[in-house]
Each structure stands twice: as structure tokens, then as C-alpha cells.
Amino acid sequence: MATAYSFVVLALFLALTLTIAAPLSNFENRAACTISNKRQAWHTLTNDEKLSYLNAELCLMKTPAKLGLRSARTRYDELQYVHVVQVWSAHFVGAFLPFHRMMINTHELLLRNECNYTGSQPYWQEQLDAGKFSKSSLLDAKYGFGGNGLPTTHCITDGPFKDYVNPMGPGYVFKDHCIDRQINDAISQSSSKANVDACLTKTTWETAWPCIEANPHTGGHAGVGQQMSNGVSSPGDPLFWLHHTWLDKMWADWQAKDKKRLAEMGGTNIFPQNAMFPPRPSEIPVATGAPGDPARITTLGHVLDMKGIVANATIADVMDIRGGYLCYEYIEP
């Protein structure tokens, strides 16, 4: 049985947040973003489009690493490392959604620049599969990510990623292992339309962000289980990217309801010490702020560190998905 990712206790640690509004540094560049990057739900893609994405991901899993990051053999591993060593500064804090938005964009750039992918980063419309992840089209063996894991090892045995050897995880352990899953339909109910809608009705950042990081976030991770349910090493399962792109869409949908939300940031900048993550090794420091944002409150100056894969950016840079630094939109299914 996997060590469950403790998303379900998230709200307990996020009760005290502070919202800070400030001008967006790239807001004036919004007009310069000519949308051609249209992110779509996986179930709306053609089979050829699905195979194009899957093959690009396989390419990234074979492209040699460049940065000398611990245990990383491939460019895909390097992305996972970014998450592993910063989990304490990117969860249960105001930077949660901005950090993952930056990670998703970096993943998309690598697929395009290094694996000739010409599509956009798709998302998993989890509301459709809530309560029945085991029947999701995303788990298809040919046009998806493979199915559930074995009853014993939980290793997946079909799909394009069945032979992938991941060098990071579980948690902070660095060792080779399979992609493993343990689908839990009951927990996947946390991704329900009702829970998504509840978050979209929140009127402030200090209530919307914890809502998104709680139930919807839990549904995708713990509903898939095993590697995905591990708060540290979850990017080792390629379903991670579609799940977090869905969460990013949710944030973008919330922002679109009021343009003032494109500059609304805040919340704690310190990871709660009693959050139930795997034990932290000494080489992973407790977050006590971030470059550009050293205090206890998350601000637009907070630096998002991609460990050299791409140049760092700030939260201000990624607040607007059409702001100039980012340039994409989400297509409703």
C-alpha cells in the first residue's frame, strides 16, 4: 500500500493567509500574445494527436540529461528533480500554483524544443472521470498512459511507459523503479465537478488557492495512487503533467472572472512544519522564503527556480497566461 500524499489535510495548514495585490510587471505585454497555443482536454484529441504527445514524452525520457543533477539520466528526470528538491517550497504555500504553472510551461517547451512536438500541453478533464478513474480513456494501453498497476508490485504492465525506469522516488529516495499505480475510484471523487465549481466561486486568492490545492489536487494524485500519490516524486508518472495542467486551467478560469485577479498573490511563504510529507533529508532545506521573496508572505517577486533547465522567472511573470512571458489559452471540452 502506498504512502498516501497528504493533500487531504491541506486545508488545515492554510487557514492563515494574506492577500497582496500589486501591478503585474508584464500586464502591458498582454496584447503582444497572439494565441496559437491552445491547450485541450485529452479526451478531445484525435488518436494521432494523442500519439504525437505520447511519443514526444517518450523522446524526453530518452534524451540525455545536460545539467548534472543528482540521479538524472534524461531531460525528463531533470524536470522531476526540480520538483523533488523544491517540494518544501512549492506546496502548502502561496507559490503552489505559480510554481507548477512554471513547471508545466517548462515541460511543454522541452517537448517542443527537444522532441519536435508541435502540439500543446493537454489536460485531464478530471470532472468527467471523478469516481471512475479506472475507466478513464487516459489509461488506454494504446492511446493513453497505460493502466493500473499489478496487485503486488503496482508496476504498470501496458501502455507506452511500461518499460520506463524512473531513478527518483519514492519520496526522497534516489533509486531505479517502475512507474507504479494503484487506482482508487473512491478517492478520485475528490476531482468532482462540484468540488471544482466550489473553488471557482471563491472570491479571493486566499480562499481559492487552498481550495484548488485541497480536493481537486487530492483527487488526481491519490486517485491514481503510488508514485502519483507521493508528494515528492509524483512527476515520475507522466499523468502528473495532465493533472497539474487541469489545476492550472482551474486557476486560469478563476482569474478570468475578474481581471484584478491577474495581480492577486499572497499566502504563507513558509511550509507548515506539521504537514505530513515524507521525512525530509538534511540536503533538502525547510523553506524560509525564496529569492526575491524572503519574508513570510508570498509576493509577486518570488523567484521560480527551474534549476537551469530554463531561465528562472518570477510569480509576476506567470500570473497571466497571455501576459507575454506565457502565451497560451485553454479550450473548453
Instruction: Supply the number of structural domains.
Output: 1
What is the string of SSEs from the N terminus onward? Answer: HEEHHHHHHHHHEEEHE
Per the principal axes of the C-alpha atoms, what is the gross shape? globular
Chain-averaged pLDDT: 89
Corresponding CATH superfamily: Di-copper center containing domain from catechol oxidase
Low-confidence stretches: 1-28
As for the CATH topology, it is di-copper center containing domain from catechol oxidase
Radius of gyration: 18 Å
Structural class by helix and strand composition: mainly alpha
Q: Please indicate the percent range of residues in DSSP E strands (runs of 2 or more).
A: under 5%
What percent of the residues sit in helical stretches (DSSP H or I)? Answer: 25-40%
* CATH class placement: Mainly Alpha
End-to-end span in angstroms?
35 Å
Q: Give a short account of the largest sheet.
A: 2 strands, antiparallel
| Lateral arrangement of strands in the main beta sheet | 1-3
Number of helices: 11
